[in-house]
Amino acid sequence: MTASYNHYFFVGIAGTGMSAIAQYLRGTGKKVSGSDRLFNQDNKMLIQEQFEQMGIACHFQDASGISADVDVVVVSTAIEESNVEYQAALQRGIPIMKRSELLAAISASMRTIAVGGTSGKSTTTSMVFHILDKCGFSPSLMTGAGLTALQKKGLPGNAFVGESDWLVIESDESDGSIVNYLPEIGLLLNIDRDHKEFDELIALFETFKRNTSGRFIVNANHPVAQKLSANSTHDFGIEDGVGFVARDFVQEGYEIRFTLNGVPFQVPVIGHHNMENCAAAVAAAVTVGVTIEQAAIAMQSFEGIYRRTQLVGKKRDICVIDDFAHNPAEVAAAIEACHRVGRRVFAWFQPHGFGPLRFMHEELGERVADTLTGEDLFLLSDVYYAGGTVNMDISPVVVSDAIVAKQKNALFIPDRNEIVPYLNQNAQPGDVVLLMGARDITLSDFAAFVLNNL
Predict the structure, then answer these.
(1) What is the value of pTM for the model shown?
(2) How far is the C-alpha of 273 from the C-alpha of 298, rounded, in Å?
């Protein structure tokens, strides 16, 4: 499907999923251009400048880039048929392809390792890539968050073109596109209620399993995911009876240590969940041909990824950590990880949509209340609104009220800019400020703002 096209135009190219494919195709020699409603020729975004340095032409989303030499227009599920560029492609007779279809076509032509699950996909995908890259396998990558090591080279960091036929991808269940992939190795990290109800999620992951032509590797200690195990000798977990057993977890500062099948690991990240992510990555790497000992050496230099318990900095001996957590399991895991960094956690959360808040608010309140210590504080601000027609009949206050009802500390502060003066009055040396949320591209700038104004 991809071989017949030379010039790809991406509508909404700055989005993480779209940008990864765009970079990959450009790296293989294809002509790539795209648009985004956030692009501005006078005040360019960083990713816009990075694209242009790669030779990817950037346009405002006004159909000015839909030229006669465009072979195919790529859209995500967020792009409606009424979009001006969608209509321009139809009028010009240019084929329109869904992002998920394109990624599936690319992955079908490679030896693909696909990472699935409701939490930890980006981190685990990056860990698999890092291990294979350090061990000489020269893999390609398409994922949902930038690797710090690649960002240091001036790249967005969520895509890379290697020299081998191995490709590591993050496979998304939220839009159902995970069923389109035909990986050689499939990883299933977990199945928690997020975006969809359990029955629908399980059906998607069952198809993902059926579509995996080689080895399907599962977190055997996750109560739902383990039901899809194909062969426990290749699974990972924290209990005996699986192929890759992680135990002896210790976190000191911003580093974790553990053993995997008796081999010591030392990784510069935080959180028990990252021990499990690492075990999954190693299980996949060993399937490719890496030894556990080689993987352990490789993971010592893993630099983490963008907005995944990412240390923004420290000021007045207060750590500021930025995280993409947006579902109850992820929020709880991020808070738990920060408990080992400081004495008290100020956890701030911005819900990423009214629909998601309505879907998960009860479970979010329960999971957070169970995770907070008596001294921690959970802060919420107004829901992130991305535009469009949406039912706004729910407020984050339902979450803070539920947490308070369980005798834990929570507070709704609608304007997120008011968080900084609150923290200045209440945060003390030794505390951790954890900032969480998804979709809103200004969140990393907000984390820097919080740090600079403490």
Answers:
(1) 0.90
(2) 19
